[in-house]
Here is the input.
Amino acid sequence: MYKNLAAALAAACFFAPVFSQTPATPRTPVAPVKAGFVYVSPITEAGWTRQHEEGRKSVEAALGSQVKTTFIENVPEGQDAERVIRDLAVTGHKIIFTPSFGYMEPTLKVAKDFPDVKFESITGYKQAANVATANARYYEGRYLAGIAAGRMSKTGVAGYVAGFPIPEVLQGINAFTLGMRSVNPKASVKVVWLNVWFDPPKERDGAMALFNQDADVVAFHTGSTAVMAAAQERGKLAVAYHSDMRRVGPDAQIVAVTHQWGDYYTARVRAVQSGTWKSGNVWGGVKDGMIRVGDFGSKVPQAVQQEVLARQKDIAAGKLHPFQATRAAVRDNEGHEVIAKGQTLSDAQILGMNWLVEGVQGRLAQ
Here is the structure.
């Protein structure tokens, strides 16, 4: 996509006269682009923040001296976030990445005061002239993880430790349940809401409560490795989220749903560098390389691994959509039809999801 500037300059110099009488005019060094990253939790060995930190490192690896990055970790959503984002803008950062849903409004507020700074609201949905949004189609990976969970569960009961009942989380719960029930129509999923993104003790307690309710495999939408550690402790199974967590749960992990930010972050910094950055919205999935399912645990049979990877290829090719009612209408867990037979939810419907699918034992809030 991007031209190799160094090669172009080298080619231009190759044809310069060898015996030039005029001294070459020294080029003014181009200042590196300053890119800032704000993280909602500490940087741990795995999890939400770890994946974005890996994205930041990818930017540095790709651009070298052309970029200078700064990161601030463990920044609560709200006024603290606004202060940190503003400080980065004041100190000359030309692009600022804010990867947390609760950072959306602080980002927009600061952006109004710094029209020459570019902002990337990751998981946000409101854009401005200098604010772009981006997110990944996590639900695609969740569906695939549900297939693995459905094949591996002996009780037919899975647990789900969830942060907040926002559409992104509901998409994941529903896709996971649909994936599980695609291979075990009688499977059920029990949900525990924590109303927090990162609280390892609460995450662990939520997992333990689910194990005590017959769940023998758990998935989660929280920020730490606590659920995986709890599964390892109890001799149960778990789906890793954000990162590969086999170091934490070598016997517990069945599969990992990971999101990859390096290519996107690098492209956006390059766009600032070249003056081509534009606001917009990106929602990438398996096809785009932003979502990947793999990192199977040692207990997962080859047949299950091959099935999951085959379905991943189907999603990438557009042959499979987690929210398509192919054989029968899809209903929510209150009996209402939410996807008519033969229909597929549009992006707008997925983004506004406010229901739990049949098979989920839980409510939108507790």
Remarks:
- The chain has two domains: 5-137+261-284, 138-260+291-361.
